Amino acid sequence: MNGLDLPLIWAGVIAGAVLLYVLLDGFDLGVGVLFPFAGSPAARDVMMDSIAPVWDGNETWLVLGGAGLMAAFPGAYAVVMPALYVPVLTMLMGLILRGVAFEFRLHGRRRSKALWTAAFAGGSLIATLAQGCVLGGFIQGIKVKDGAFAGGPFDWLTPYALTVAAGLVAGYALLGAAWIIWRAEDDLHRRARRWAWIAAIAAALLLAVVSVATLHVDPRAAARWGLAAGRIDVAALAPRLAIPGLGAAGFAVVAAGLARRAHAAPFAGAALVFLSGYLGLAASFFPYVVPYSLTFRQAASAENALALMLAVAGVLLPLILGYTVWVYWLFRGKVGADAGYH
Q1: pLDDT per residue over 106-152, tens digit each?
Q2: Which among 61, 179, 271, 282 counts the fewest CB atoms within 10 Å?
């Protein structure tokens, strides 16, 4: 594929897959996090019915992102995985637990159904916290020497990473509550509005704390935002102000949608908040795939391997996207107590 910047294309594919995973699996993880607050088994049934047709498909994007990183950027995979093995393994165990609980809850009797309800909520929370620790451990930096991980297995376990994890729980809860607002009716719909207000306030506060803390984690991140050494570089800062502005606009859309009792607007606003955070990460680290140690070009596979994988992805990605859009369209609309999955 002469003339194509294959490493850059693959960086975009993986970045897009991860963003789609965060937005799509984020809301169904958020539904699980909110499960204990539903108020009744019937309300929990509706919550589960609202994500039943899509939750397993949402995780396709995690597989694509992880497998794509391993195949397209093996140098980065070889550094990141040993550094974050513990939270990544914990995340996978949480996802497995919630997946098993999802199916077993359907057939459980009263006592076992309560057990699987707790397992679904617990697995969702564990997976979310672990993802937050992965993100926090990545942002704060990974010790690299001669192109290999040179730190310890618990370097990621810091107050900063735990704060990021708490922020992700709040963010996913906001996505989950906004999804329930969009899809549910009556009392559950009203409960979800209360959840969304609480989650939005918590997410905004934690996002602000994490944003400020990130500038102090590594001075190079602050320099990219024009805030190095206590000085403000207006030329560097000005174009990047659109990113937090997008996040503020997202929270404004959430608040306005909740105040006007809109149905889809809170979810759209929450998606804008996550997009803002994602763009903030790109502004802080691109072109590094291991912050300030390894760029995507340095970590990339050989051109012929990238070209072969891109040819395969060119066939599979449209099919996956088309199937995803079709499923969401097919199961659009409100979910009632007679949805039938439970």
Answers
A1: 776 667 788 888 999 999 999 999 999 999 999 998 999 888 899 89
A2: 282
Domain total for the chain? 1
What is the number of other CB atoms lying within 10 angstroms of the CB of residue 18?
18
| Residue 340 within any structural domain of the chain | no
Report the C-alpha gap between 282 and 19 in whole angstroms. Answer: 12
334 closest CA partner among 192, 220, 163 = 192
Which pLDDT band, with edges at 50, 70 and 90, does 220 fall under? confident
Domain extent at residue 261: 6-330
Q: Tell me if 335 is assigned to some domain.
A: no
Determine the Cα–Cα distance for residues 198 and 233; give it in Å rounded to an integer: 36
Return the number of other C-beta atoms located less than 10 Å from residue 205's C-beta: 12
* Residue whose token pair is 């108020």: 39
Asked whether residue 336 is assigned to any structural domain, the reply reads no
- Which residues fall within 8 angstroms of residue 91, CB to CB, at 6 or more apart? 126, 127, 130, 131, 134
